[in-house]
From TrEMBL:
GO terms for molecular function: 3'-5' DNA helicase activity; ATP binding; DNA binding; four-way junction helicase activity; hydrolase activity; metal ion binding. Residues 60-228 form the Helicase ATP-binding domain. It comes from Kineosphaera limosa NBRC 100340. This is ATP-dependent DNA helicase RecQ. SUPFAM superfamilies: P-loop containing nucleoside triphosphate hydrolases. The lineage of its organism: Bacteria, Bacillati, Actinomycetota, Actinomycetes, Micrococcales. PANTHER family: ATP-DEPENDENT DNA HELICASE Q1 (PTHR13710:SF105), DNA HELICASE RECQ FAMILY MEMBER (PTHR13710).
């Protein structure tokens, strides 16, 4: 599902050239109108929920009134209702652009079960299925129509949309438009055409991960300059963050599962397909019900493993990052990383799949400098121009800084997303088991992690503003703000 990262086609937007820091951030109580009116009636009638959460009511009102919105809300925060409810209230069909092709059928089925008339158009359908959905749209029989972004590449889909009535455009997983971010999809770049072609149709862009840079890039690339920005609190207080020194990672994982989450559902992320397969086999042999998921498995196996994970209890999904975006399973009790994610955005999004039900959950990771060396080699020998590689290196530096921090991990994570100044949380390992300095018992052996550099601990220095392990010869650029790459 997740495509490999792609070489940037255009220069990345400088962070200061767009909006986020200056934009009003609207956080807080629901607006009265949506809280009392037709939208609330729909929320209660269709979903059976009593109240809107957080910013939902204000966002719903903005769209019902014909305005644009840019929504940053953590995983499981309730972004879907922000466009589903106005699609029911406004005349016409809400058009939802989403990269989650493998989930569209499930999403549409779930809506149908609630009595919402929804359809989708993507490459998994037969010609007849597509034609039937198009006919339903034209005759005004759909409340919501989900589209894969590549559908909007040709004139054919635009003509189809013109042949019906559009209530709004929702651009889900909007961080995919960002070349700065970690999930870039080239097809998202053309979504600015929505505004050019249908300037009066309200638009909403939604994502669960956005640094200031990504936030700015979303606003800029989707031409959302006039939109209201809604930025929710990114803290997930029910998730405990822990990062341990990598020793024998599979044995460490097994001990973690047996000690802390026996019989519970969770996700284990590995960097390579090979490692996914071997880890799933290792766990299964040790009596832990585990399934593999990666892009190299055939479509049927992937769909079947995903469906089992969603429906059965207590399964462990061992996966590459191809798994997880948009998965709405409430009781994922842990997310474990056996390898270092490539960016803090990726780490936050992946760990955010734990504890959507609000109950205590664990984000656990093993980390060793060998991971960093491996990732740096991949970056240095990977595709893309020098600027692209430099950006990837900065992402990795920030991830490394999070691993090596001696201060509260949660506050550092939130600061990365621009929510600075939090007190120590008391619910992460650096809070509950403080260590005096990096390089002690729980810390991996220190030597410079850049493969091109042979320095060892003697010549090493910490990255400015962080406690990361870089030798002075290869220290990353100074970061003004904890781990934010500059
Ligand atoms: N106002 C509400 N009252 C009760 N439950 C809600 C409300 N809004 C959303 N939910 C529930 O919260 C869960 C998460 O919602 P949703 O799938 O929209 O999250 P999301 O923000 O899109 O997350 P992700 O980033 O993972 O896609 C769903 O099960 C949804 O039904
Ligand atoms: Mg969502
Ligand atoms: Zn903490």
């Amino acid at each position: 599902m997740v495509q490999p990262s792609v070489m940037p086609a255009q220069p990345v937007l400088p962070a200061q050239s767009a909006v986020p820091a200056e934009q009003p951030t609207l956080v807080g109580e629901p607006d009265d109108r949506a809280a009392d009116g037709l939208a609330l009636a729909e929320l209660r009638r269709v979903w059976g929920y009593e109240h809107f959460r957080g910013d939902q009511a204000a966002i719903v009102d903005t769209l019902i009134d014909g305005g644009d919105a840019l929504v940053l809300m953590p995983t499981g925060g309730g972004k879907s209702l922000c466009y589903q409810v106005p699609s029911l209230v406004r005349e016409g069909t809400g058009i939802v652009v989403s990269p989650l092709i493998a989930l569209m059928a499930d999403q549409v089925d779930a809506l149908a079960a609630l009595g919402v008339r929804a359809g989708f158009l993507n490459s998994t359908q037969t010609h007849e299925q597509r034609r039937a959905t198009e006919a339903a749209y034209r005759s005004g029989e759909l409340d919501l129509l989900y589209l894969a972004p590549e559908r909007l590449r040709g004139e054919e889909t635009a003509r189809l949309l013109d042949s019906g009535r559009i209530a709004l455009f929702a651009i889900d997983e909007a961080h995919c438009v960002s070349q700065w971010g970690h999930d870039f999809r080239p097809d998202y770049l053309q979504l600015s055409m929505l505004h050019e072609r249908w300037p009066t149709v309200p638009r909403i862009a939604l994502t669960a991960t956005a640094t200031r840079e990504t936030h700015a890039e979303i606003a800029h690339r989707l031409q959302l300059q006039g939109a209201r920005h809604f930025v929710a609190d990114f803290d997930r207080p029910n998730i405990t963050y822990r990062i341990v020194a990598k020793d024998n990672p599979r044995a460490q994982l097994l001990a973690f599962l047996r000690d802390e989450h026996p019989g519970e559902a969770g996700i284990v992320y590995c960097l390579s397909r090979n490692s996914v397969e071997q880890t799933a086999e290792y766990l299964a042999a040790a009596g832990v019900p585990a399934l593999p998921y990666h892009a190299g498995l055939d479509r049927h196996t992937r769909a079947s493993n995903q469906a089992r994970f969603l429906r059965e209890e207590g399964l462990v999904m061992v996966a590459t990052i191809a798994f997880g975006m948009g998965i709405d399973k409430p009781d994922v009790r842990f997310v474990a990383h056996l390898d270092l994610p490539k960016s803090v955005e990726g780490y936050y999004q992946e760990t955010g799949r734990a504890g959507r039900d609000g109950l205590p959950s664990t984000a656990w990771m093993t980390y060793g400098l060998a991971d960093v060396v491996q990732l740096r080699r991949m970056i240095e020998s990977g595709e893309g121009d020098a600027a692209h590689r430099r950006r990837q290196g900065q992402h990795l530096d920030a991830m490394l800084a999070l691993c090596e921090t001696v201060t509260c991990r949660r506050s550092q994570l939130l600061a990365y997303f621009g929510q600075e100044g939090r007190a120590a949380c008391g619910n992460c390992d650096t809070c509950t088991q403080p260590r005096p300095t990096p390089g002690t018992a729980r810390s991996p052996p220190r030597s410079c992690c850049r493969p091109s550099c042979a320095s060892t601990a003697a010549g090493s220095a910490t990255a400015p503003g962080t406690s990361s392990t870089f030798c002075s010869a290869s220290a990353p650029p100074a970061s003004s703000n904890s781990a934010i790459p500059t």
